[in-house]
Amino acid sequence: SQQGEEDPQALSIQEGENATMNCSYKTSINNLQWYRQNSGRGLVHLILIRSNEREKHSGRLRVTLDTSKKSSSLLITASRAADTASYFCATDRNDKIIFGKGTRLHILP
Amino acid sequence: DAGVIQSPRHEVTEMGQEVTLRCKPISGHDYLFWYRQTMMRGLELLIYFNNNVPIDDSGMPEDRFSAKMPNASFSTLKIQPSEPRDSAVYFCASSSLNGYTFGSGTRLTVV
Prior knowledge:
The complex is a heterodimer.
Chain A: E1 5-7, E2 10-14, E3 19-24, E4 31-37, E5 43-50, E6 55-58, E7 61-66, E8 71-76, E9 85-93, E10 96-99, E11 103-108
Parallel strand pairs in A: 2-11
Antiparallel strand pairs in A: 1-3, 3-8, 4-5, 4-9, 6-7, 7-8, 9-10, 9-11
Chain B: E1 5-7, E2 10-13, E3 19-24, E4 31-38, E5 42-50, E6 53-56, E7 65-71, E8 74-79, E9 88-96, E10 99-102, E11 106-110
Parallel strand pairs in B: 2-11
Antiparallel strand pairs in B: 1-3, 3-8, 4-5, 4-9, 5-6, 7-8, 9-10, 9-11
């Protein structure tokens, strides 16, 4: 069963703009992770935020976590064509990670 | 480190045939996961192991699916007999305290 639900399902923005994707989940978690998947490829781990953290940065990525609202957001700043991919949030509870259905991000030149 | 290694990358088989997917996790990772990805259902967790022991197989769709991990460096996912609805990309992942790493997946097509 799906734990995380990403929003929006698809997003198209101009290169250089910021992209924001959201994730909501249902039950308590140990941590939340974001992954990227290029078409036809495997998943690449981007960032992990623990349940006691509120914000985390990694390069052009910024992740927030609000455990009271059971939601997280992924912000990609100054988007590039290479950022075109699907982005998934995954919740870690009791040692197993469950994925949402993802957001398809398309960066327009 | 070569990462998580899956084989084969692509598999096309006829309905009713047995299919075996293979995974070599990262050395030292004590968890191993099998996922299936389809357009309709997204990424589904099928089964996971901790220290070679199956912990949760509640995601395995039916008895036609079985998974084994005979040692810390090898796992298999077997489908017998295969059906067209099993067509999907199957991912293996391993993890330690430092995080998760996914393999490149096996694209299975059952005709």
